[in-house]
Amino acid sequence: MRYKKYPKYKDSGVEWLGEIPEDWNKTKLKFLGFTYGGLSGKAGKDFNDEDNKLSKPFIPFTNIAKSMYIEDNYFGLVVINEGEEQNRAKKDDLFFLMSSEDYEDLGKSSLLDFEVKELYLNSFCKGFRLLDKDIFPKFLNYLLHGDMYRKLLSIQGNGFTRINLRLEKLNDLNLYLPPLQEQKAIANYLDKATVKIDTLIQKQEKLIELLKEKRQALISHAVTKGLNPDVKMKDSAVEWLGEIPEHWRNIPLRYIGRLQNGISKGREYFGSGYPFVNYSDIYNNAILPQQVSGLAKSTKEDQDIYSVKTGDIFFTRTSETIDDIGMASTCIKTIEKATFSGFTIRFRQLSKILNEHFSKYYFRTGQAQAFFEEQLNLVTRASLGQDILKQLPVLSPPLEEQQAIANYLDDKTSKTDTLITKSTKAIELLKERRTALINAVVTGKIDVREFNE
Fold it and tell me: Are 346 and 392 in contact (CB under 8 A)?
């Protein structure tokens, strides 16, 4: 589509913004309305207590992080403290994520564009209520999702484990706004344009979801039933495993090797030194990457106790949800002088019973998570202990059969992974196109008013 520029521009006085349309004016967020706080910190038992008559619906910070608009099917429940009734949200309020573990999410805004009877805000967030009648809420939300505004907010953050955005930084944010009717025209245009892009993104996401389900089913069948459809089967005595090949062994993890919790130190221990396997290295990868994300000032003794060797299997130990507990990553090649995180557990065989290439598939089937879910009682944070992990049933075909299964899955999954990669790249391009379009329109680089005539 060909876009026109505005007839006349003026210098904005801001290097990253450049020129803006002649009749656009500068202001600050604090001049357009007021911010109000999220709920104060609560004990875990206060959240999602459906039996408590005092429980009120609230917006989790993840609702804000995931979408430009608050989703009405994604609320939590919380018991509010006395005096917090004033923090009740209303239609057309904007919400900002003020604390995050990720710079990309910090300062994200989300608009409540429907009526609510009673709704409150998470403590990691701030609400913003417009008082200026010459501001169209939906336009302001689009403006704040422009690429440069997102970067401006994210770089204001500070903190070590969580990144925080100070309220004064948000309030002092400079905004460049067109007249009200033009704001509405821009928002209406972007509604139509972005929904087309979002539809294409959703189709690609659905394809990836289906490909992953197909991939997972293929792996699960191969590592629990083998490759020979005519093999004689026996009962595994484990409900979620069902029948297994008669010549395979079912051995609890405790009899195959030993477990070791990772290293826990103060923050001064990290950031430089030798390779350090972080939680994310394990969570995100079935095969442990050779170039891990962390560094630690480990001693020779640390490196001996918490070493990372070929065949080692690492499990995530803690998480907010049971679904993420026990995610496994297999070390295919020793990482010299490496240590690993205290949020994880290492399993090391006593003798060669498991082929590491078989392990990388077996322990990521999702069936281990089904076992952990049966064993764990989730309170506020799920934690996997060695006692439970030791009970994990492990299927052990002969080593040559394990290698054959791994070779088969390497071949089959590589084709699926190629399709997933293509779809993932397509989504990235579509998102870049969406961001670029929003940024160009809300900063006046292109004129879309004619599309609303």
Answer: no
**Assigned token pair, 412:** 């089959």
Q: Which tens digits make up the pLDDT trace of 146-192?
A: 877 777 776 666 654 567 788 888 888 899 999 999 999 999 999 99
- Contact between 177 and 183 under an 8 Å Cβ cutoff? The reply is yes
Q: Which residue bears the tokens 């990388």? A: 360
| Terminal-to-terminal C-alpha distance of the chain | 17
Rounded CA gap, 328 and 376, in Å? 17
Looking at residue 157, its pLDDT comes to 60
**Averaged pLDDT score across all residues of the chain:** 87
**Residue 89 has which token pair?**
């949200």
Look at 368 and 377; give whichever has higher pLDDT. Answer: 368
pTM, to two decimals: 0.76
- The reported pLDDT for the residue numbered 155 is 67
Q: What is the pLDDT of residues 23-79, one digit of tens each?
A: 999 999 999 999 887 665 443 445 555 566 667 787 877 788 788 898 877 677 777
* Residue 101: count of CB within 10 angstroms of its CB: 10
Q: What b/e sequence results for 344-373 when a residue is b if at least 16 CB atoms lie within 10 Å of its CB, and e otherwise?
A: bbbbbbeeebbbbbbbbbbbbbebbbebbb
DSSP string, 67-99: -SB--TT--EEEEPPTTGGGG---TT-EEEE-E
Mean pLDDT of 195-210: 96
Say how many C-beta atoms besides its own lie within 10 A of residue 427's C-beta. 18
Task: Give the count of beta carbons closer than 10 Å to the beta carbon of residue 409.
Answer: 20
Q: Residue 450, class by beta-carbon neighbours within 10 Å (0-12 exposed, 13-18 middle, 19+ buried)?
A: exposed
* Confidence label for 275 from pLDDT (cuts 50, 70 and 90): very high
Q: Give the CA angle between residues 30, 36, 41 to the nearest 5°.
A: 140
123-132, 371-380, 422-431 — which is least confidently predicted? 371-380
Short-list 443, 450, 441, CA closest to 191: 441
CA atoms of 143 and 94, how far apart (whole Å): 12
Looking at residue 44, its amino acid is G
Alpha-carbon gap, residue 137 to 126, rounded angstroms: 16
How far apart CA 155 and CA 142 sit, in angstroms, is 19
Computed on alpha carbons and rounded to an integer, the radius of gyration of the chain in Å comes to: 26
Handedness of CA 147, 153, 159, 161 (dihedral sign): negative
Domains assigned to the chain: 1-8+179-226+399-453 (1.10.287), 25-177 (3.90.220.20), 232-396 (3.90.220.20)
Q: Cα(123)–Cα(138) distance, rounded to whole angstroms? A: 24
Strand partners, 254: none
